[in-house]
Every structure is written in C-alpha cells, then in structure tokens.
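Journal club prep — side note

Before the paper discussion, L.F. wants everyone to see what a predicted structure for a comparable chain looks like in token form. Sequence:
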Amino acid sequence: MMKINKRFVISGMIFFFLIYGGKLFNIRIKDVTLFVFNCPYNLSTAIEGSCLFFTEIFDSNLAGDITTALLVLGSGILSILIFGKLLCAFICPFGFIQDVLYKVRGLFRIPKIDFNEKITTSLNVIRWLLVVVFFVGIGFCTFCPVRYVIPPLAGYQTEIEIGFFISIFVMGLSFVNERFFCKVCPLGTTIGLFNKISPFKLKKNCTACTECAICYEKCPMDIKEIYTERETADVFMSNCILCGECVNVCPEDNALKITALGVPVMKSSRKRYYKKNK
C-alpha cells in the first residue's frame, strides 16, 4: 500500500497551486520567481521557477529591463534565503513528480535500484559540473528534462529535442531510484551553498547516535555523513534536500533534528520509531 506522509500531501498541494494556479485559480504572480524547477514554458503556472532567468539572463528580454530583472532574480535569491532546502523538499514541482513516481513503484512492488558509493561519487561530480553549465548559460533548457515533463502536464506542447530523450531517461531512473534527478540537480546544489546561513538546518547529537545506519539507508540522497559523523553536529550537506526521512526513522531520542532559526521543529523519537515498526 502506498504510504502517504505529511510532506507528500503538503508538496502535492503546492504542486497543484504552482503548476495549475494560473488556469484554475486565475492567480498569476508576475516578475516573482522561486528557485525551483517550475518551468516557465508552462503558461498556467502561478509562480514561475527561476531556472530560465538565471541560466539565460543575458539572452532574455530581462537584460534590457533592469527593474524586472531585479525583481525576478532578487525574488529567486530571496526564496533561497527564506526557505533554504525546504524548496527541494516541499516546493519544487519536479521533486514532487519524482516522489509520485517512486511511490507508484512501491505500490506495484517493483524492485528499486540502489547506487553504490562509486556511482554516488560520480553523481556528485556530475552535479557540480551541471552547476557550472547552468550558470554559464550554454543552452541548459535544451537538455533540461523538466522542460519536457512539466509543460506537457499542464497541457502545453514542447519540441522533441535531446532533452525529450533525457527526460525519459531521468523519469525512468527516478521511478526506481528515489529522487534521482535531485542527486544531480544544479538548483538544489546551489541552494546547498547557502546552508550555513539558512534558517533551516539538519543537526545531529553524536553522543546519542548508535551508528545503526538506518538514517543512511533511508536517505534518498545517499548521504553517508548522516551516520558516520562523530565530532560535529553539522550534518547538513549541500546535497541534502531536507526531506526529514532520516529524522523520521532514527530510533534514538534527539539524535537527529531539523531546526528553524535554532528552534527544533522535528526531532527523532524512539517512541515514534517503535510505533511505526511494531
């Protein structure tokens, strides 16, 4: 049976608002963007993603309109500073699509594919290369898989280019490997650069940790430091999407927690662990 958690429900509601808000609710917030993959080629969106404007700023009409450029780019940066990695966990439409695909796989009991450390290391290299490609602006939209998924879901046609075939590959892997695209996402990686000043953080109490590795096994991003770190409380890696799964499954009280401006908003609990695993 498909397991539905609060994060999935919240991100689903945000997904429908962002993707179909312009058409269903007649809400279209112009010149304001969110630093997520919500493709601007979808003309029904309520709030556009910042992707197109950051990767092709000098090729767009914004180059000659300073006021609009400041609003568009400034709001994108502001969304990073306000929401941090919650953009990945709750707000990114493409993240929600991947969550749906992975849950459908579980519903039909199709075996998942786990990546070994060698592949994970290779993906880390790829995600940093994509950050460079993204900000250099060398036609990222041409091969971006999001462009060939989100606009069609909203009823808009896209041309069949190399990105169409890449999207099939990405969607296929996201079906059998949780949040596959997030492992190489240039937007998520960029947001991670601001983790130090983000209001939301993932913290670890190393003395409470028993190194059971359940958190690592559950982490969709394969972040090993969550359980191997033994000296510092900072386990908020740049590729973390702040989904909270590690906190949810940790069997030790307060070993892991998510904080907002230093205040715990989610803590690991032995009681919750045993309640879920009776």
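L.F.'s comment for the group: The beta strands are 33-34, 48-49, 200-204, 256-260, 263-267. Keep this in mind when we get to the figures.
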